[in-house]
Amino acid sequence: MDATITPKTQVATVKLLIGGKFVESKTTEWRDIVNPATQEVLARVPFATQAELDAAVASAKDAFKTWRKTPIGARARIFLKYQQLIRENMGELAAILTAEQGKTLPDAEGDVFRGLEVVEHASNIGNLQLGELANNVANGVDTYTLLQPLGVCAGITPFNFPAMIPLWMFPMAIVTGNTFVLKPSEQDPMVTMRLAELALEAGIPPGVLNVVHGGEAVVNGICDHKDIKAISFVGSTKVGTHVYNRATLAGKRVQCMMGAKNHAIVMPDANKEQTLNALAGASFGAAGQRCMAVSVAVLVGEARNWVPELIAKARTLKIGAGAEKGVDVGPLVSCAAYERVNGLIERGVADGAKLELDGRKPTVPGYEKGNFVGPTIFSGVKPGMTIYDQEVFGPVLCVADAENIDEAIELINSNPNGNGTAIFTQSGAAARRFQEDIDVGQVGINVPIPVPVPMFSFTGSRASKLGDLGPYGKQVIMFYTQTKTVTARWFDDSTVSHGVNTTISLK
């Protein structure tokens, strides 16, 4: 990454990207980027000033004048080059991500790869940004639509996927002809900045992609800025609701992917080994810091007897620093996250849930200062308990039970969130019943984390989503473009009308 060493701290400083140049912020407010496994300070990130945000937006606005006229094939070729550069630098990107965020190296590579899939999808823009034509809708009249870019768009991304989620946003916005201002998480922006460097290397022109850093003030500045036309957000429900309300009042298009409480129904006929492996991976992978993690397992009928085997499976997972080989569960991203998750575990015990497996204060030799919480399992969890009602965002699995599939579906549909859900069964009838009756945006059938591939769109629902169009896929083409409908009639001498027509008819 492009960084300098400051004499005062001897720590690298993360730059802003404005007008195609990586520039040092003039702010007086900085935050340390900390390795969550060691507490080592890796770099310092600036909280950009209002003037720096204004400069980034002005750069994007100016670049839009020419970028929107760039041929669609030229835009696509940039993203073909970009996907090649990401592949060539996969190892470096994963290493940066692991150091600042904590997830294991294989999971970090998966983070980058799922974003890469969207970049590849963006390179197919020639087949995606198509309008419609109806010939001769009236006498010599044609009607057609154009999907035209909006202008300056912005993205606000979370800490848990610092490669994938930025790659959900700016490639699709830019390839459709918009320019972009990105605000990555201030907790782990370094891999995002490396991706920005590669984007410039791929040929994205100066000003088309800009990056600013910061907290609440920068988020509010993005919501309020008169020259920003659309905002994409992924993060907590509290912040997402604030962004949606503030930005829509300012007249912007907004899509917000927010919090979750994802349930997985386990039917008694499910393949036990496959199901236990899937639950353990989806609950405890990435230390539970996924908006699509399985955080509630609803065991139906005889499957309620599987808890001891689920505990045994969880005990096999290795806890450690993400860069170490063989590690399954890395640290939580920050000391604050560590304290919050431990506090919620304590609250679960106080609320009467049975702590079947306690992951607090694991021994991790050589990383005693790390923010580690091991796999934790509660049984007897019910609505009203804090660990059920709140998104823990840690390696904590709540086990509930149900007599039958009807009771399980009712439990899930009663939860306010609707991000993702799954069922494990060998019954086609049960699976079809589930997919029809469940009120959740993304459904997995024997798939624990049903995040769709980029040809489709991320489709969270209810309290997990605000805005009716999701990121990537066909929906995001509509989000980042304005449909313009043109009705045209061309005359020759033989068809010229010689009278005034005062009716609405096009005959």
TrEMBL record:
GO molecular function, one term: methylmalonate-semialdehyde dehydrogenase (acylating, NAD) activity
Record-annotated Aldehyde dehydrogenase domain positions: 22-486
CDD domains (alphabetical): ALDH_F6_MMSDH
Protein name from the UniProt record: methylmalonate-semialdehyde dehydrogenase (CoA acylating)
NCBIfam families on file: MMSDH (TIGR01722)
SUPFAM superfamilies assigned: ALDH-like
Keyword flag Plastid: no
Top enzyme category: oxidoreductase
InterPro entries membership: Ald_DH/histidinol_DH, Ald_DH_C, Ald_DH_CS_CYS, Ald_DH_N, Aldehyde_DH_dom, MeMal-semiAld_DH
Family: Belongs to the aldehyde dehydrogenase family.
Native species: Variovorax paradoxus
Entry keyword NAD: yes
